[in-house]
Amino acid sequence: MRNNIFLWIIMFLFTLISCEKSGVEHLFETDPETRVSDTLKFIKNELTSAEYGWKVGLATGDKGGYGFYMKFDENDQVSMLSDFSEESATDMLTSTFRLSFNFFASLVFDTYNYITLMHDPVPGVAGGSAGTGYKSDIEYSFVRARGDSLIFAGKKYKHPLIMVKANKQEQEAYLNGGLYDFEKSFKDFYNDNYQFAYLGEEGQLRYAIELNYDGKEIQVSQINADSGIDTVFSIPYYNTPFSIELIQDLEWENETIKSFKIGSKDAVDAIFDNQNKTELKSQLLPLYDITEVFAYNKNFRKMTWSNIPDVQEQNHVFNEVNDLFAATGRTISEMYFEFTNSTTARVYVAYATTASSFSAAVTYKYRLEEDKLFIKYDDHNGNWNTRSAQVAPVNNLFGIGDKNDEREFRIEWTSSADKSVKVPIGAIRSVDNPTDLLYGELDR
Q1: Phi then psi for 239, rounded to 5 degrees?
Q2: Which of 80, 133, 321, 430 could join 128 in a cystine, given CB atoms 3.0 to 4.6 angstroms apart?
Q3: Would 12 be classed as within a structural domain?
């Protein structure tokens, strides 16, 4: 009897398992191998059937975004142009691609072309970092199809690769040098017509728009009604022959900005996804007050030295220090003024000879009253004393050795006559000697 009962249990379980298998087969309709094959065929057909090729944009981890024109054929070859350089924008290169499946359907650029420049780990090739390049991929996992677009994501770094079917006019523009021509004409137009671009009205929420040509990204600062910064974020962009395209959406007044174009009214238009548009405005100074953003507990706590040309002032302390170090065969890699906390500030200089690297630093006690800055010497390290001849301009400005010698300064904006300089330039100006100042880019 027990044996019969056991046999009936086994038969019952077998029936359940058989029913479950049938249910699974009915649910998916086809086996996994067929589904993989269908996905790869779909991608291949989409890539190769685009009559006029593809507008392509990708984001990198270290250098913003890059744009491409790509044309795929049935023989697994892809021809492309890129906005990486003038040469890549005008000289078409052809390489191979393949589609593979390893957990995800993937598009692989498996021989050298412009897209591999961003991936190249040798700094001398394209200027990327040793070992990582621009933190960009050559293998991209398929994410989805959307209208006339294919969306992929880098297998290692996960940055998006966006492909949009080109039309005949766009293809002709790409093939006739339009990619480089647009980049140059847009840059010239922007430099001539904009200093600090923005969206919105004074006294309301505004966006400050800073176009970083070298970094291939747009920095957006959200400005509140009190002229302070609520948040700062960056969006990589890429060029087409007609527009700057954002790789990530920018939300403004309940609409989504997708691109920027030169408009018909001597202005740059922000183009929304519904094809509505609004003009970028401009003013000569940053939208935010320097006192609202420059302090130890604000958006920026450093004023960093950089090679900013044509600042219309007389005595540039950072530049003087750099020149004095260079005269001794030493190279400065970093130099800045920093509010380290609510009462202490410092000037820091990192420099190197051909054999070794060093740092020199001096600290100050300070108090900040709106735009008035009061500073007196506190302490310095050994290298600051060793390099006293080279750091003399800083000592002359802020004082050295006497802890009772308090000096008064103003923090303010200054500017460059070079139209290509779009970054906010902060200055610490001596009240007693107004021609003496420390200036640089504001940094975090």
Answers
A1: -100, 145
A2: 133
A3: no
In this structure, what token pair is assigned to residue 22?
């049938």
Q: Domain range for residue 146?
A: 39-175
* φ, ψ for residue 72, nearest 5 deg: -100, 145
In-domain check, residue 76: yes
Q: Is 155 found in the same domain as 52?
A: yes
**Radius of gyration, alpha carbons of the chain:** 29
In a domain, 54, yes or no: yes
Both 206 and 118 in one domain: the answer is: no
Q: How many CB atoms lie within 10 A of CB 390?
A: 23
Sheet hosting strand 217-223, strand order edge to edge: 277-279, 268-272, 255-262, 244-252, 229-239, 217-223, 206-212, 196-199, 281-283
- What 298-302 contacts at long range (C-beta under 8 Å, 24+ apart), as own/partner pairs, is 299/229, 299/232, 299/442, 299/444, 300/426, 300/442, 300/443, 300/444, 301/338, 301/339, 301/340, 301/443, 301/444, 302/336, 302/337, 302/338, 302/339, 302/442, 302/443, 302/444
Domain match, 105 and 214 both: no
- On whether both 299 and 274 belong to a single domain, the answer is no
CA nearest 113: which of 70, 149, 154? Answer: 70
Query: Residue 30 domain-assigned?
Result: no
Average pLDDT over residues 202-212: 90
Which residues, in sequence order, are CB contacts of 42 under 8 Å at separation 6+? Answer: 145
pLDDT score of 265 more than 80: no
What pLDDT is recorded for position 58?
Answer: 95
Q: Are residues 317 and 433 in the same domain?
A: yes
Tokens for 220, please give them: 């957006």
Q: Is 65 exposed, middle or buried (0-12, 13-18, 19+ CB in 10 A)?
A: buried
For the ranges 69-73, 90-94, 390-394, 436-440, the lowest mean pLDDT is seen at: 436-440
Distance separating alpha carbons of residues 313 and 311, to the nearest angstrom: 6
Both structure tokens of 172 = 């002709």
397 residue type, one letter? L
Number of structural domains (the chain) is: 3
Say whether both 205 and 323 belong to one domain.
no
pLDDT at residue 413 is higher than 80: yes
User: What is the rounded CA–CA span in Å between residue 253 and residue 273?
Assistant: 13
Task: Please report, rounded to a whole number, the percentage of residues in the chain having pLDDT higher than 90.
Answer: 69
- Name the pLDDT band for 30 (thresholds 50, 70, 90): low
The verdict on pTM exceeding 0.70 is yes
CB atoms within 10 A of CB 75: 7
- Tokens, residue 71: 């044309």
DSSP per-residue string spanning 355-406: S-EEEEEEEEEEEEETTEEEEEEEEE-HHHHHTTTTSHHHHHHH-SS-TT--
